């Protein structure tokens, strides 16, 4: 059976690094994002990658796109949910729409994606679901009310999935990204920061790859990733 990895939320940072890592390991990689033009360019650059337009906040798209992936690539055995984002405002400043938007991408989108892909994961003797989280899931700062609450909900959903699916040999893990990811826009915004201030997307991808290879008697549910200089 072909090895198939689906990555939801492929952008120029961690998402693209995950695509390259799993493609290098021989996976057929489904790249899912709202920006199909970028995906098409990366599809030409990365052997084994395949572009699919997908908006995780539009749940009705999920079953259709994962049906296509199964027909064109085979059943997914590794699902990486890297879609995220949120509004950084206090509870007083945030609008109800901003609060809902944060929830839709982090919680609603994860559930819709899992419901669409779970049948495919169950076709394999072993499978993995890894969710990209944030330190905000563990602490709600004053100016992060929409984002932190959505990430906390996402973490609880991932934990519920881990407890449900573990007996089926589906490993669910939550990766806490605690730090600033090294991207052109973050470098531009923080020109005075040294290299070791940033999280290297390739190193993040290596850690996610490690999670998908763990033997089931010693699974990790939650993995914190941060540069040594990050205050925690």
TrEMBL record:
<dbReference type="InterPro" id="IPR002347">
    <property type="entry name" value="SDR_fam"/>
</dbReference>
<dbReference type="Pfam" id="PF00106">
    <property type="entry name" value="adh_short"/>
</dbReference>
<protein>
    <submittedName>
        <fullName>NAD(P)-dependent dehydrogenase (Short-subunit alcohol dehydrogenase family)</fullName>
    </submittedName>
</protein>
<dbReference type="InterPro" id="IPR036291">
    <property type="entry name" value="NAD(P)-bd_dom_sf"/>
</dbReference>
């Amino acid at each position: 059976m072909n090895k198939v990895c689906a990555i939801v939320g492929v952008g120029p940072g961690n998402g693209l690094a995950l695509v390259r890592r799993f493609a290098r390991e021989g996976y057929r990689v489904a790249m899912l994002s709202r920006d199909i033009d970028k995906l098409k360019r990366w599809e030409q650059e990365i052997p084994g990658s395949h572009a699919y337009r997908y908006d995780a906040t539009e749940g009705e798209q999920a079953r259709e796109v994962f049906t296509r992936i199964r027909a064109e690539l085979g059943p997914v055995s590794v699902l990486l949910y890297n879609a995220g984002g949120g509004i950084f405002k206090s509870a007083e400043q945030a609008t109800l729409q901003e609060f809902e938007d944060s929830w839709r991408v982090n919680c609603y989108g994860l559930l819709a994606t899992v419901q669409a892909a779970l049948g495919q994961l169950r076709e394999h003797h072993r499978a993995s679901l890894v969710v990209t989280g944030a330190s905000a899931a563990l602490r709600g700062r004053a100016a992060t009310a929409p984002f932190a609450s959505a990430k906390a909900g996402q973490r609880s959903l991932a934990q519920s999935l881990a407890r449900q699916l573990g007996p089926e040999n589906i490993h669910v893990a939550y990766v806490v990204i605690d730090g600033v990811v090294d991207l052109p826009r973050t470098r531009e915004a923080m020109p005075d920061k040294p290299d070791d201030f940033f999280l290297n997307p390739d190193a993040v991808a290596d850690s996610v790859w490690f999670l998908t290879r763990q033997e089931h008697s010693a699974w990790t549910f939650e993995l914190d990733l941060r540069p040594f200089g990050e205050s925690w």
